[in-house]
Design goal:
The chain has 229 residues and is mainly alpha-helical. The protein has helices at residues 10-23, 36-43, 47-59, 77-90, 95-116, 119-137, 141-158, 162-182, 188-204, 208-227; strands at residues 63-66, 69-72.
Length: 229
Amino acid sequence: MIEPVKRSNIGDMIVNQIKELILEGKLKPGDKLMPERELMEILQVGRTSLREALKVLESQGLIQRSQKGTFISSNYHDFFSDTLMYQLYLADTEMEDIFETRRIIEKELTYLAAQRADEEDLNGILIAVQGMEKAIEMNDQKGFVSADMLFHERIAKSSKNLVMNDLYNSIKNLVFRVQEKVVMVPGVMNESLEFHKKIYDTIKNRKPEEASMLMLNHMLQVQRFLKNK
């Protein structure tokens, strides 16, 4: 499973090999790495190089170290989704690209949420809807965007699909930038709220096809609002 590494860029190669094993599922959350001496023998590296690599992995949140040993972190997936998030955030991303991506990801997330959401999930989605209602009453655009973002995050979590949830989290900063622009369009908050209420109802009533189509239409509506701004 773990192979000897070449002498160039030893620390980086150790780090990359551990990352590959995690991505391939050969190392899972909670798995304990073998003791340093055994790792040194298998990797054919020195103690200094190994410890430097472990420090890098720990700083990235991929492993956790304690007196009991070194373990694969339970939230290691945050590192991979965060890495993609920063790459997308810093890139010169076109608005159309964001909407296309949202339509694909969120339509399916909503479909899955309508099948898998439990009572806690449904309550979380409802709280987000109520937050949007309150923001409209207060004419609070910033509060509306925050509640709107929470609504979509709760749906992503309710899908129970870790990979797709991570994909959504990787683009949510881009979504936030779009929402900040859209919310300034007159009438958009009320229109958006109505869509969110219907989406919540269809998720609650276990209607995946209807819920996913409502989410798709909502995405298209938001895009139209932005184009007509």
